[in-house]
Each structure stands twice: as C-alpha cells, then as structure tokens.
Amino acid sequence: MYQKRIHNRLPVAREGIPFILTGIGLTSIPLILDWKVVAILFAVLTLFTIYFFRDPDRTPAHEEKAVLTPADGKVISIEKLNGDNHFEDTAIKISIFMSIFSAHINRIPIRGRITQLYYHPGKFFSANRDKASLHNEYNTVTLETDNRKKIVLVQIAGLIARRIVCWVKKGDYVEAGQRFGLIRFGSRLEVYLPPDSTLTVTKGGKVKAGQTVIGYLT
Hints:
The chain is an alpha+beta fold.
C-alpha cells in the first residue's frame, strides 16, 4: 500500500533543529555580555544554518512516466554505463551536485517500492569530484516502479558533509516528490535510469527536487 507523502510541518528539517538551537545559544551569550561583533557573527552563522536546513513544500509533476530530480543543484555529468558499483546493468547515470546553498532535502523521483537499501561508510572527498562516487560515504536506495523499472539513487557525502540521513525502509511504497532523506552541508546525488529512458536535462542545468523532470521512462 502506498504511503501518504511525508509532510514536514516545520519550515526546516528536524535534523537541523539541534544546530539551529546551538546557534541561538551561542548568539545569546555574547549578546548578554555585550560583545556585539561576536554576537553578529554567530547570528549570521545561525541564519545560514536555518537557510541550509530549509524544507520548502514542493508540488510534484503528475506526468505519466516522468522522473523527477531527487535533489536540488546542478547537473555535473551525464554518462551511459555498462554497470558499476551501484548499478550492475546498463544505465544512464545523472550526477547532481548540491552546494551549501542548495536545499538539501532529497525526494523520491517516481512512484514505486523501495526494494533495497545499502549504506557504505567512506572518505570525504569534495562531492563534485568523480572519485567521490566510489570512495566517499554513500547510501544507495533502489526503487522499483509500478512497471517494474529499476531506478537507483545514491546519496554521497561531500567534503564538509559527514552525515547521510535516509527516512525510507526496504519494502516501503513511496510517491513521487515524497521526502526520503538529506545530506548535511554540501553533497552529491546520483540517479541511475534504465538505458532506454528519454532525458530532458543537460550537463550544467539547474534542477529542483520534486519539481524538475529529468527524464521519462519508456
């Protein structure tokens, strides 16, 4: 049975609340001591933390067989592969780089069922470098659509990001646009599509999670 889309009633991701409260506390202390410059510095950092963990509502497209981007950011590469560590079959891999200014909530690209999850601890190279895909900390989410098409999502930690969060479980039925996780402080997300998919994005394009269509399944 398909789940209702997870709705966060807060304007920020819950995982960001401890960082925001810490920032508020660090801002309050120099304010009390009348250290205005220090207070302003901590206030700016706190505001940026709130901005980073923002969780905007998005209305997903309802086009048949449309695949939505699971992440905000910039498309840094599109490759046709004959299999690699994340996808054993022929596939099209789309890599999306999320800077520290991107909204970092990750979303389900198309309706389906989660068939496999795999977490791999690793290093923390810059997420826009190719070797980050293999050597960094990553989490793989495999999704099977209603038409039995397989899509693989790979959350990859970056140079600053040290924590991948995933809210779905194996066996979950999920909807397009549903929130499924986030990566803290700069990262990368890769999408593996069937080789006969029709792409609607190009390298260098900007995308928004849950809204931008990156391709169509056959």
